[in-house]
Structure formats: structure tokens, C-alpha cells
Amino acid sequence: MVLLNSVVFAQQKSIRGKILDASNSQPIAGVSVKVVESGRTSSTDQNGQFTFSDVTVGNTVVVTSVGYLEYSFRIGNQVEYTINLTSTINTIEETVVVGYGTQKRRNVTGSIVSVGSEEIQKTTLQDPISILQGRAAGVQVTSNSGAPGGEMTIRVRGNSSLNSGNNPLFVVDGIPIESGSVSSLNGTQNFGLNPLADINPNDIASIEILKDAASTAIYGSRAANGVVLITTKRGAEGKPEIQVNATTGVSSITRFLSVLNARQYRDAVLESYAALAIPEEPYYTLIDSLSPMNNGDVNWQDELMRTARENKVDFSVRGGNESNRFAWSSSYLDQDGIVINSNFKRFTSRINTDFKLSDRIRVGQSASYTNGVNNRINAAGTGNLSIIRSMLVRPPNMSMYLPDGSINGYMIGQRNPVGMALYATNLGKSNRLIGSQYAEIDILKDLKFRTNFNIDYIAMKEDEFMPSILDYREGYNTGATRSTTNLTWGNESYFTYNKSVNDVHNFGAVLGMSFQNWRYDRTGLDGMYFPSDDIRTLNAASVISNQGVNVGSEHAMLSYFGRMTYNYMSKYMLELNMRSDGSSRFGRQKRFGYFPSASVGWRFVDEEPIQSLGWLSDGKLRFSVGSTGNEAIGDYTSQGEFTLGTNYLDFSGAAPTVMPNASLTWETTTQYNLGLELGFVNNRILLTTDYYLKKTRDLLYNVPIPNTTGFEFITQNIGNIENRGLEIGLQTRNLVNAFKWNSNFNISFNRNKVTSLPNELLTNGFIQNGTYHILQEGLPIGVFYGWRFQGVYARDEDNVNNVINGANGPKYVGGDPIWKDVNGDNIINQDDREIIGYAEPKFFGGFSNDFSYKNFSLNVFLQYSYGNEIYSELNHQRNSIVSYNNLSTDALNRWREQGDVTNFPRLIRNDPKQSDSRVQSRWVEDGSYLKLKNVNLRYAFNSQWINKIGLRKLDMFVTATNLITWTKYTGYDPDVNSYSGLRVGVDEGSYPQNRSFMFGLSLGL
Asked: What are the strands, taking DSSP E only, across 757-842?
């Protein structure tokens, strides 16, 4: 009898099958079909059909396809199989990653948005933050720089802090990683390099953004600004699958800005001198067209901007068996910037392994290494060291080269931007290792224990050099070097319990602890007067300075966390979270913070009266409340800080800067979230809405104090901020037959408000936050404050009120700006400033459409922002004759004589009435935009044909990024932010965005 059964079980046979989309019964091509025991694989043809010969009865067949739930079946006596796959695009059964685990989406009570690998592969963007832009409701991403490897700003449900950071916590495969720039030599730029550019997007399986307190509270003190969970691809059972992706393409600037030519510029300079009350002679060589230094007619944008190339190759192998699984990948990126001599090269390698040592014990590891070389150039920022600003304001008549062939590097405060790009050095080299090891043990059937050790190590070497050929001082050259290391390591250990009673009562729990330590070290020096511009090592400098850059800093955190979940038949859901964090950054009495959350869910669609509604296929109501924290202050702030290097005679010294504050404690954000999820027409339409209210109290802020204390400031807990908003996501399957059309739309509304500030910090009712912004109770963050520009006096007599500049200043005359006299005293001074703009948008979001027919697929992605305003300091600089700046062609319509009606004031040297130097509404522009952000056209070759040449998969695609931007903004791009932190919506002259066209092949073996 036993022998007979063995013979039957080992029977060999041939099978064939057809795989259909469950929603429309249409065949699906390119589906992977694998026999688990033998590792043999096949894929469906154009008609959704597959065949296997000589397979064994009783073996298991696994069917997988991107965008569909996995399906498996056991081979029986039948020969033909018809399999219906369920799409994961609009399904509530898919699994999402949450803190310390996973959940089915149907059981999630928090607000979580996911971006899967199928979305990522439609782009050619090279960092995870860029990919999120417009694709996740409630997540606002703004470009600080269009340079390769440039930093981005990301906000989840608005700004929640004044001083202590507003970036979310990033967790990669369970490892909390460093997401802030560790760059030290940033020139005049207000931001650094993007550390998340170290992660290769092709390695990412999914990105989950946790937004409300129910989902983030388990991460406690670092989760006030949301949590971004990045999960990388891991191995699967079956024959190893090799994947090779190769892309190549070009990029160029999206638009050029207008500037005056040499003749127009000379006329403007002469006119500006003639307009002075006592006319002066201009610097003679500036207008002398016969001078070899000023006989040019150069459009500096044409000289600096180029069509840049980009090449990338990805190679990966994934596979395994029941006991061992692995995923290994390597990638090389060589990306030129659109400004000459800027480039980013990145090599990444990653290996993820999972080993099943026994039925109860599993171990594994994740490790990634990145080597990056970023030739940054000092593109953005302020002053004559900024290449972007210089290429717009350097006079066109200043020649490129001198008669002896050397570069015309410096004239009258203006550096040659081409010379800065070619001969100045701003180079960053980095090595990064992110790794973890885990062990997981099944203690009981429903109880398991997991522990992991993780590390994130960054080593960066930066070099900077400005040669003497770009300076007016003979032999004056400067250099600097920095070596920075940032080490984060920790351990997390926790128990997980899951129990189901009769498939009715479902219990879950997580209980654990974690420890994490951070160590930051920086060494470096500055040097001057090198013997030659060709000798740039610091040992050649005759003057060494700035020993104060050598610093070390360390802090640690000990945490305890737990979660309990319960659901009754997935109809009634309850979840409780708690985390306790102890941080060395706070005093002993305030060291621990406690961050609880509670959430409930009701799947009302499962109630009998509602089940009879045939048009409603899903319905869930969610509510959550909880607290999260923020501890992003200096490592020793509560203990007080000193500045070293304040020496006296020959003795070393230290000076106090930050007063100790042992009572300093956490910023705390309490958030309420009400969510509604609806599905219609068999979930072909899914609508998700979330309304939230975030209240942040005990804001950590550096409060200035009198110098008589011996300190500059003390960090205190002061003030409150509130964010409230609405998020809407709509997924639809519009056409489901041979021609398919799926859409994904999201829109987010966020209203930010400062609700409380201490009176002792206020001057005239507000805090001046940098040059352009103020902080004031009742107003949002990102408020521009200055003078209201109301046009230009056409004639002297139009100033009927005899308005003057300052208490005893001159009267405004024809050609001068008309300023709003706020208090009506006919004097324009500090008292006439008012709110002149708002940087935060009224709403933002994205709209993605996927079309497919047979082997062709097309993705069209639109991204938008509406209602935000930009303070264009860039346009201010290129419309001011001060410092011999060149002007935009708007200056051709300037006021020249009595009676001229225009909005461009007369040109006059040295700004005698501060018309140019004022922060003013003239430079506040509408920053709303709609971008055709991404278009991806892909062709998947017929599986029957490619199988004959030994390939598993072959796709060809073309991707265009930043194809069209519709906007009223007159700068390079409205997706811009020159500052980090709360000084949002300012364009100082950031590295411009580019338009790219990439061609690629994706090959599978």
C-alpha cells in the first residue's frame, strides 16, 4: 500500500493553464509561474497561457505578478488549470509594513500611505525622497537643489517645531538611519548633501509613510514629524533570478532667464550714475568696450549650462529554497549636472539573507555599502561665491579671457562663474555602511522573539579650494578640508504574540526594548596663501586657521515599547501603543518621555444592513489619538555649552555660549485623526479621507538672554504650534478590459498656525525669523514680512502727500517706488512693514494614470502645488543695479522720464532711499504650479519569444522627467527652497531643476 502511494505521488505529467485577471477575466501576460520543489519557472504568453512538461503530481506551483496577490496550488490529476489573480491595486487584503511588524490593510486603524516597487520602477529618480513627491497624501517634498545628490525638504503633515527639526524618522529594514546632511563645507549654500541618495531606489520593495499617532507612537520621541519605513527586496524560494537594468539619457535646463546684453547693460549703468543728485563718473573700464577686460557680450547661462549625460547599471540576483533565501544587488550611477563640472557618482551594493536553522529558529542579515563622489560646485547661496547668482548678475561685457589667454576671474566684486565652476574645488567623498543582523525564535506556536543589532556608519571627506585667479588680491587663495564620521548603532529586542480564536477573536501584542547610540566626529582646518593654485593640499598653506571646527559629540537613548491589538472578525478593531524614551540630551529629572496612542476601527460594510448595498464593497471608519515627541536638540544643550578656542594671550580658553537648563524636556505633539475608507463597485473605486489635528506644545527654542549673564542664549520649552488638515486619496480602475486604465489621485490641505509665544521673546508682537520671515501668534510658519510695493510714481507731483523716506529723508519723486504707508504718517520706515506673503500652499498633491494594452504600458504622473508664494531674492538680485549687477530684460521697461507709466523704478546708484534693499512685495510671486512630472512608456517583449533566447523577461522603456511645468513664477522653477528649517519659500538662486529623457532596458534571466 505504501509502495503504491509512492508510485502515484511520483507520477510525472504535463500541465497547461491560463491566468486571468479576476476583475475582468482578461488574460495576463508575463506572469511568473514556478514549481517550488524543482525550481522550474515559466511565464505566461500574450494569451495568459503557460505549460509545463514532466512535473510531479503533488508539487506546489506558485503564481506571482507585479500588482497581483500571490496564488499557489498543488498539482493534481487534472491537466488544465484556470487561475484568477486578484489585483493588489485596490485591495484591502494586501499587507503593509508597520512599526515592528506587518498588518493586513483591512485591519489597519492608523493613517498609512504606501508607495510600492511598481510605482518606483516607473521613475528614474535616484533617491527615495524624490520618489515620494506628489505620490503620498500628506507628504510635502520640496527641492533645495536640482544638483545631483542635492538635499530635499520633506514634511509630513506640516511643520511641528521651531528649532528642533521637522524631518520624519527614516527606518530602513528596521534600522533607524541618519537622514540629515553631515556635510560641513557647503560654501554659501544653506543646505548640504542628501544622505538618502545613498539608497538605490531599485533595491526598494515598498515605502510606507506613517502619519498619525496610532501608527507612529510606537517610535516615540522621534516620530512627531512622521515615520518613513523603507523595506528592501529580499530573496524568495525558487531558482535564482538574475535581473539587469541599464539606463542612459540626457538632461537639460527647463528654462533660461532673460538678461541684458552688453550694449543694454552699458546704457543702464550710465543711466544709474546720471540719476544721482550729484552725478558721478562710473568705473571707467566697465563701460569701455575697447578694454580687453570689458569687450565681451557674454550670456553666462549659455556658457555654464549644458546637456548633461546620465548612465546607470543595476544588477541583482534573488532566490533561495525553503531554508535559505538571499538577495544581492549592485548598482553604479554616473550622473552629470546641468551646470558644467558638476557630477555625482555612486556605487551601491546590498545583500539580504534569511536562514532557517530549524523549524523554530531563523537568522538573517541586511547590509548595504555606498561609495559616493560628489563634485558639487558652489552653485547656490548668496554673494559672489554663488555660481547661479553670478551667472545671472555678472555683467555681459566682462570678457571671458584676458589677452594672455588666462581667465578674466574677478572684476569689481564680480567673480567669473565659469572660472568658479572649472577651477574652484568643492568635492565630497563618502562611504556608508548600513547593516543589521537578526535572530528570530518561535518560543510557542503563537509567541516569537526577535532581536537585531544595527549600525549606520558614514565617513565623509570634503575639500574646498578657491584659487587666486578668481580673486582681486594677488596670491590670495584659500582652502579647507573636513573629515566627518557619523556612527549610529543599536539593538532592538521584542516579543510578538498573535492568537486567533475560532477565526473570530484575533489578538496581537508586541513588547520590547531598544538602545541606540549616536557619535559624531569632525576634524578639519582652513588654510590661506598656498604657493600655487596647483598645490591644494592643506600642508602647503602658509596660514592655518579655524581649529574650532574640530568637534566630537555623542548621545544615547534607551526605550521600552509595546503594542496590543484586537479585532472581532476584522469588523471591530482596537489598537493601543506605548513607548517610553530616555534621552541623554535631557537632565536626569526630565530624561524619560512617555508617548501613548489608542485607535479604533469599524468595518461597517460587514454589518448586515449595509451588506445588502451592492454598490458599496468596502467601508471602514477609523479614529486615533496619541502623543509623539521630538528631542532633536544639541547633545549637551541641557548641560550647557562652551566654545573653545577663545584664547587669552598664550593660554587656551573656553567661553560659555548656552546656559544649562536641567528642566528642559521633550517637545510633545498630540494628534487626533479621523479616517474614512470607502470602496465601490467591487473595489474598482477606493476613496480614503483623513482629517487630523496636531498640537505641539513645549517647543524647544533658543531664547536670547542678556550678555551680562555670560551666555548668548538658553534653550527653553516655550510656545505651541497647531497643524490641522484634510487628506483625500482616490484610486480607480477606470477601464478593465484589454485596454486598462488605472488612476491614483491625492490632494492634501494643511493649515499651520503658531498658537502661543512668550511675550518676552516678541518685538513689536513677533519674532524676526531670518531676513524674510516672522513668527507671530495666530499666523502660520512661513510668513513673509516687509514693505508693500504699490507701483512707481510716474511724475514728481504724483506724490501728493509728500511722502518721505525716513523721518528726515528725501521726498519720493518720479521714478521712485510707491510704498504703502501703513500708519498714514507720510514717512516710510520700519513701522510700515506688514505681511506680504505666505509660503505654505493651500493644497498640494499628485495625479497618476496607468494605461496598458497588450505589451505596452504608459504611466503619466502630474504633481501640483497651489496657493504658495515664493520670495524671489534671485529676481531681486537680477533687477538691482547695485554692485554692478546685470539686469533682466524687465529693466528695458524701466522708468526713464517724467510721465512714464511702469512698475520698474528708475535706475540709480547706491540705493539712496533703500528702494532695492528692502524686503518687499515686489519680489513675492505666485509659486503655484502643475508639473508633468513623469512619463514612462514601457514595452514588455513577448515571453514566448524571449524564452527561446534564454531570457525570463525583457522590457524596454523611455522615461521623461519634469517634462512641462505650468506656472506664473518667473524664476527657474517654483519647486524651490533655498533654506532648511522654517525659512521656507525663498529662492536665493538654487541649482536649477532639469528636464531629463532616459532610455532603459530591463532584462531578466
From this structure: 767-769, 773-775, 783-786, 789-792, 804-805, 817-819, 827-828, 834-838
Residue 346 pLDDT > 50: yes
From residue 39, alpha-carbon distances to 11, 35, 44 in Å are 18, 5, 17
| pLDDT (mean) for 539-556 | 88
Q: For 353-405, what is each residue's pLDDT tens digit? A: 999 999 899 999 999 999 999 998 887 777 778 899 999 999 999 999 988 88
Q: Which residues are CB-contacts of 20 (< 8 A; sequence separation ≥ 6)?
A: 26, 27, 28, 48, 82, 83, 84, 85
Q: Find the radius of gyration of the CA atoms of the chain.
A: 31
pLDDT at 850 over 50: yes
Q: Where are the beta strands (DSSP E) in 502-571?
A: 505-528, 543-545, 551-568
**Coil/strand/helix, residue 897:** coil
Is the pLDDT reported for residue 33 higher than 60? Answer: yes
Number of H helices and E strands in the chain, helices first, is: 12, 55
pLDDT at position 164: 63
pTM of the entire predicted model: 0.88
- Helix (H) or strand (E) segment spanning residue 302: helix 300-304
* Residues contacting 488, CB < 8 A, separation 6+: 176, 177, 178, 455, 456, 457, 516, 517, 518, 519
Residues recorded for the chain: 1005
pLDDT greater than 60 at residue 636: yes
Q: Residue 50 and residue 31: Cα distance in Å, rounded?
A: 9
Which residue type occupies 954? L
Query: Are 698 and 665 a contacting pair, CB within 8 Å?
Result: yes
List residues bridging with 523 in a β-sheet: 483
Q: Which is it for strands 49-56 and 843-853: parallel, antiparallel or unpaired?
A: unpaired
CB 555 within 8 A of CB 585: yes
β-pair type (720-736, 713-717)? unpaired
Q: What is the greatest pairwise CA distance in the chain? A: 118
**DSSP, res 150:** B
- Taking the alpha carbons at both ends of the chain, their separation in whole angstroms is 43
Q: Are 425 and 376 in contact (CB under 8 A)?
A: no
643-649-652 Cα angle (round to 5): 35
Return all residues near 252 (Cβ < 8 A) that are at least 6 apart.
305, 306, 307, 308, 338, 994, 995, 996
**For residue 706, which amino acid is it?**
P
- As a whole number of angstroms, the distance between CA 83 and CA 99 comes to 34
| Residue environment code for 549-559, b if the CB has 16+ CB neighbours within 10 A, otherwise e | beeeeebebbb
Grid cell, residue 161, equals: 517645531
Map grid coordinates 545628490 to a residue: 149
Query: How do 414-415 and 410-411 pair as beta strands?
Result: antiparallel
Secondary structure letter of residue 619 according to DSSP? E
Assigned C-alpha cell, 605: 460594510
Q: Using CA atoms, how far apart are residues 649 and 666, in angstroms rounded to an integer?
A: 41
C-alpha grid cell, residue 458: 558614514
Given a contact cutoff of 8 angstroms between Cβ atoms, the answer to whether 630 and 165 are in contact is yes
**Closest of 109, 150, 104, 108 to residue 127, by C-alpha:** 150
Residue 71: C-alpha distances to residues 34, 61, 79, 340, 841 (Å): 11, 8, 18, 52, 44
d(CA 158, CA 161): 9
Whole-number pLDDT of residue 77: 81
